Amino acid sequence: MFRTILMAITLFGLWLAMSGVYKPLIVGFGVASALFTTWMVIRMDKIADDERLVVRLNPLRFISYTGWLLVEIARANWAVTKIIMAPEMPIKQHFFRVPFSQKTDVGQTIFANSITLTPGTISVEVEDEFFWVHALGYSDQDVEALEDMDARVSRVETI
Amino acid sequence: MAELVYDWVILLASWGLILGGSAFVMIGAFGMLRFPDFWSRLHAASVSESAGMLLLIAGMALQSGWTLVTFKLVFIALLVFITGPTSTHAVANAALVSGLRPRDDVDGVEGAFPDLEAEP
Predict the structure, then answer these.
(1) Which domain covers residue B66, as residue numbers?
(2) Which of A21, A78, B29, B56 could disulfide-pair with B21, CB 3.0 to 4.6 Å?
(3) Is the ipTM above a cut-off of 0.90?
(4) Which of A80, A112, A114 sits opposite B43 (nearest CB)?
(5) Among its keywords, does the record have Transmembrane helix (chain A) (predicted)?
(6) Which residue from A49, A52, A48, A69 is spatially nearest to A113, judged by alpha carbons?
(7) Closest approach of chain A CAs to the CA of B46, in angstroms?
(8) What does the pLDDT look like over A79-104, one tens digit per residue?
(9) Nearest CA to CA, how far is B92 from chain A (Å)?
């Protein structure tokens, strides 16, 4: 019940933020659509299994991880920009395994998406204990950098 | 006077960010044209998607100040931050599954690849 009320309030808050027009009619539409969506979710819960997305992350560590990730994205962008602009384009493609240590699905998704977000590496395939990653300008330091990122994501998890 | 200086600082910073973001979008497009194959072009596209998108949105947020527009811009940035890598992964995975193998400059053609036959 608490979750349902929280969801209805969140949906209505999102409507208010996205709309920006605060006339009674428009706000009334917002209330109606938030209630309708909540009703649909309750209805779907009866049919679908009640498996919920469980997020076991430490919020403070998640924020500091995001800050670290932004710096990494900036550095990786610069590295790829240099490859693009260099006349001879020093591409060194490599396709390799990157083991992950996260225990939750959300943690693994954060790690895989972080790999893809930093230009120069893309996570392509998932297997039981590792990702297949494609790198544009591979160097041996990449393995260490990805191990470091893996450990940082695992530290965000609270499990 | 102080307010005028502040306005100018914000204006110049936002223009710097917007021009920088545009430059990264151009560099990404340039890389898409220059790079030799599908796998390397994916990496060029992610330059536009990450640096270009983030700088452009930061610049636009400075232009609009503390308004609802800025909130929407932050929301868009978060959305692209999550959906961008997910869609890149989907495209790369589809290419791999349909049999397109990247050139491997480290291990040569004998490079290791996932055993797709073993998948359900």
Answers:
(1) 2-118
(2) B56
(3) no
(4) A80
(5) yes
(6) A69
(7) 6
(8) 999 999 988 888 888 888 899 998 88
(9) 6
pLDDT at A142 over 90: no
Q: Is B43 exposed, middle or buried (0-12, 13-18, 19+ CB in 10 A)?
A: buried
Q: Is B109's pLDDT higher than 90? A: no
Domain count across chain B: 1
CB A120 within 8 A of CB A76: yes
Amino acid at position B73, single letter: L
Of A77, A89, A116, which is closest to B88 when you measure between CB atoms?
A: A116
Chain B CB contacts of A120 under 8 Å are: 43, 46
Judged on CB neighbours under 10 Å (0-12, 13-18, 19+), B88 is buried
Given a cut of 80, whether residue A148 has pLDDT beyond it is yes
| Residue range A131-159: mean pLDDT, rounded | 88
